[in-house]
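USER:
I wish I could look at a protein chain and see how it folds. I am handing you a single protein, as its sequence and its fold in token form. As I understand it, each token names a local backbone shape. I hope you can help me see how the letters and the tokens relate. The protein I mean follows directly.
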Amino acid sequence: TIGKMEERQPTPASRTRGVFGPLQTPVVPATICKKHLAAKASSALRWGTGCAVGVLLLAADMWLGLFAQYLAVSPLFLWSVEMCIMVILLMTILYDAVFYINTYFFERKIQLTATQKKLLAVPDTAPGYSTAEHARPVSITPSSSSSSPAVNFYTPLGTPYNSVQGTPFSFGSSSRRSSPARQSPYTFEDGRITDQQSLESFLQSEEERDQQALACSPELSSQSPNWFARHSLDIPSPLRKYHIATRSSPSHSDSHSPLCKDMDSWWSKMGIKRDDLDRWTENCRKWLARTILIPVAREIENVNAILSKNSCPEQIGAVELSVLRHIAKSKVQSAPTLGMIMTYLEVSSKQEYVVQRIRELAEGDYISAFRWNAGGSWKGRDWDQDLPNDSQILMHMLCTYLDSHLPPNPRFPDGRPFSSQYFLKCPDKPEKKKADLCIYQSSLNPPNYKVLIKDGCIEVHKGRYNMFHALVAFLHYIKTKEKSMLGQINLELSGLNILWVVSS
């Protein structure tokens, strides 16, 4: 089975390398812009020709007065109307002529090689291009009087990102700082990867540069309560690794309740195809990584650095939670986010392992190290059931994240409005659910999740994608049945902006 490598999302500042050569401004967007202007120039030529014909007809009628005789109107009135129309047509002809001449004779030419012209479908006789042996840096700046096509790049979140308008959403930050652009100086013969060895060398080189870009991103101050939003918006997109393109096979439900609906039949009833489910699962992994895992891992490092700077030997991941709670009270001024960080670590008393595993899962933006029914090695030994598995860690972090974004509920004074109302786990029974919709963890090892709804439950397939499919089903139900509302919070773009995960 051939593993597929997901496409890296380009950044506006990134440089293209390969057949097109190293460019300061990409050849492809510049050529597209040039073709767009050429199409507009051709249209201007046609309109100018038509207007010229109209001017000639109006001039002939003004000379002969045929329309005045036919319509039996005052020749002076009709002559005035025709004169106004002629002035408008002459101005249109002048504008079209200036635009056409400027596009074909004064715009800067793009230098393309013969191979580039062939790939970009540029005829050899097309004006505005010149042939060169090697591609050179080009820059196309259309005049302000003409519009050019906007080039939108798509982030791993699946939402359009424009280099001018910035990020499409924000939880607390009004602007987005630009992340370091990735530039790859790695070259191959003729700009191509020709064998397995060159492929492995290229991937290793790019991964090292991505890690350097991730480490060299601007440090964020921990003094702001919006650290979560700021971290989640400043994460560069690292190169992802190969993954075997397999799908989880359906498994028989262990529930004999007639109210439980098999996931396949439920998706079929909702009109959802399997390809949609696979895409939504990928979106879910990206969202968890970029919105929760990476910001938490970064803030752990920031808080540890602050504690060291304040001569505090205790570090997150090296001491118990009870010690951290005491430090959070005494260091509230210097490390105000320590209390919030601790809530993400309460999944287990093995703090050293939990912090280590969060760092491992936060590498990349696809949670490539995720093991649904196990975890990572710890202190030289393989994972065992005395440690939390990755599904438990991720689900706890998701619940904690939503707890911090939902408004307090007086029914649940513990300060966990989502965990108390929309999440239930064994040994509690489904009958104890406190809302018409919730995620139910029916077993710990191996982990298994279901979605409890008002009239029963959605039985999710067991296996490696069980948790992600449960989250997708949970979000899709909210979008289609609850009008995108989770309690009093909108999960669309105007609120938490989570439902893009299950967008069509």
